[in-house]
Design a protein that fits this description.
Helices cover about 75% and strands about 5% of the residues. It is mostly helical and about 425 residues long. The longest helix is centred in the first third of the chain and has 30 residues, at about 120-150. It starts with a helix and ends with a strand.
Length: about 425
C-alpha cells in the first residue's frame, strides 16, 4: 500500500483507544457544530502549558519559588500527559466519549482557576489537574474525529494539529499583555484561559445528547513491549517531545535572562510556534516520498538543535531568525513522530496500541527534560549549561529516530477478542 494512502487511513486511528476500535459511524446531524466544537476543544489543549512560561519568572519571584520548584511546575503538566492518558478509554467506555470530554473541559477550567487563585499549593495542584485533563482529552478527540469524519480523516488531522499549535501560540503571546491590561497581575493572565475552556464546554454541550450507535470490536495486540522498533518509536516520541516542552516551559525565561522583556520573550515563543503550522503539515508529506523517514528525521532534528542553540547563544539581533528555524524543526519533529506510529504499524489495531505506548511512556520521559533544566539552572545560576541538555536529548532523539525511521513494521500479533 502506498505510504501516503496508509497515512490517510490510519493517522487518526493511531491515537484511538488501545483496545477498542469503532466501526459503522453514526450519522452526524449537525457536522458544522461538531467541527466547531472539536476546533475549540483542541484550542484548549496547549494554553495551560504555554501560558505559564512567559510569566514563570514573575510567578517564581512573587511566590518565592526556587528554580527547582519552577522546573517541577513546568514538569507536572507534561508528566500528567503520559500518566493520565491510559484512563481516557476506560472513562469513555463507562460514560461515553462526549460526556467525558465535557466533564474534563470543566475539570480543565477548574485547574486553570485553581492555579491562579490559591498561592503555591493551588499553583501546583491546578497545574496537575490541568495536565491530567489535557492528557485525557488528547486521547479522546482523534477517536471522535475518526468516527464522525472518517472520509475526511487526513483533512481533519491537519485542522486538529493546527488548532493545537494556534492555541499554544495565542497563549504564549497574549498571556503577558493580558496580565498587564487587567490589573497588572500574573494571576489574571493565567486565569484568563478559563474563558476559552468554558466557551468550548458550552459549544460542546449539544454533542452530549448525541447517542452513539457504533459497533465495538475489541482486539488485543501482544508483543509490543518486547519489540525493539516499538521502543525506538517511543524514545523518538519522548525525546523530541522533551525538547518541545523545554521550549514551552523555559524558553521565555531563557530569553528574559538574555535581556528581553517578558512581553518580547512571549512573542518570540508565540512566533516560533506559529511557524510550526507550516512544517507540521509539510514534513509528513515530504517524508513519505522517500524509501524511509531517516533523512527527514535528521533534517528536522538538525533544524531544531540549530534553533535551540541559536536562541541560547547567538547574538540577539538574529533572534527571530533562530526562532523561525526552531519552529520549522519542532513542527516537523512532532508531526513525524505521529507519522512513524502509523507507518511502523501493519494495521490500525497495532497503530492504536503503539500510539498508547509511545504517548504514555514517551510523555512521561519527556517530562524529565523541563525538570532537568530547572535543576541545572538552580545549580549554576545561569543558562549557559542548558546547552548540554539540548545536546544530549537531541543526540538521543537522532539515534532513536534513525532506528524508528527504517521502513519496517513492529513485530506483534493482533487477535480479535
Amino acid at each position: 500500500m502506498n505510504p501516503e494512502t496508509k497515512l490517510e487511513e490510519l493517522l487518526i486511528d493511531a491515537e484511538a483507544d488501545d483496545e477498542v476500535v469503532q466501526h459503522t459511524p453514526p450519522a452526524v446531524s449537525r457536522p458544522w457544530l461538531l467541527l466547531l466544537g472539536l476546533i475549540l476543544v483542541a484550542l484548549n489543549l496547549r494554553p495551560a502549558l504555554s501560558s505559564m512560561s512567559p510569566l514563570l519568572s514573575e510567578v517564581s519571584n512573587s511566590l518565592g519559588l526556587s528554580a527547582a520548584k519552577a522546573g517541577l511546575l513546568t514538569t507536572l503538566p507534561v508528566l500528567c500527559l503520559g500518566l493520565f492518558a491510559p484512563t481516557a478509554p476506560i472513562l469513555a467506555r463507562r460514560f461515553g466519549a462526549e460526556r467525558v470530554v465535557l466533564g474534563i473541559l470543566l475539570t480543565l477550567a477548574a485547574g486553570i482557576i485553581l492555579r491562579s487563585s490559591f498561592g503555591e499549593v493551588g499553583l501546583f495542584a491546578g497545574s496537575l489537574i490541568a495536565g491530567a485533563s489535557i492528557g485525557i482529552i488528547g486521547v479522546l478527540l482523534p477517536g471522535i474525529v475518526k468516527r464522525d469524519f472518517a472520509k475526511q480523516a487526513g483533512t481533519m488531522t491537519g485542522v486538529y494539529t493546527m488548532a493545537l499549535c494556534l492555541g499554544a501560540a495565542l497563549a504564549a503571546g497574549a498571556t503577558v499583555p493580558l496580565s498587564r491590561y487587567f490589573a497588572d497581575s500574573w494571576a489574571v493572565g493565567l486565569g484568563f484561559w478559563i474563558v476559552p475552556a468554558l466557551v468550548a464546554a458550552v459549544l460542546w454541550l449539544p454533542q452530549v445528547g448525541h447517542k452513539q450507535g457504533a459497533h465495538h470490536v475489541a482486539y488485543r495486540v501482544k508483543g509490543l513491549l518486547r519489540d525493539p522498533l516499538a521502543w525506538q518509536v517511543t524514545l523518538y516520541m519522548g525525546l523530541q517531545s522533551s525538547l518541545a516542552y523545554i521550549v514551552f516551559g523555559w524558553m521565555p525565561s531563557i530569553l528574559i535572562g538574555r535581556g528581553l522583556s517578558a512581553t518580547e520573550a512571549g512573542l518570540v515563543l508565540s512566533g516560533s510556534i506559529i511557524v510550526q503550522l507550516l512544517s507540521s503539515l509539510a514534513a509528513p508529506w515530504l517524508a513519505t516520498r522517500g524509501k524511509d523517514q531517516r533523512l527527514a528525521i535528521m533534517v528536522v532534528m538538525l533544524l531544531t538543535l540549530g534553533g535551540l542553540f541559536g536562541c541560547l547563544y547567538a547574538p540577539l539581533e538574529g533572534l527571530w531568525g533562530w526562532a523561525i528555524l526552531l519552529g520549522l524543526g519542532q513542527g516537523g519533529t512532532f508531526s513525524l513522530a505521529l507519522t512513524l506510529i502509523v507507518l511502523r504499524s501493519r494495521d490500525s489495531h497495532v497503530a492504536a496500541n503503539l500510539s498508547s505506548m509511545a504517548q504514555g511512556i514517551g510523555y512521561t520521559l519527556a517530562s524529565m527534560g523541563p525538570f532537568a533544566v530547572g535543576l541545572v539552572h538552580d545549580w549554576t545560576g545561569g543558562w549557559s549549561a542548558i546547552g548540554w541538555i539540548f545536546a544530549v536529548i537531541g543526540l538521543g532523539a537522532m539515534l532513536a529516530g534513525l532506528g524508528a525511521g527504517r521502513a519496517l513494521y513492529v513485530q506483534v500479533s493482533s487477535q480479535r477478542l
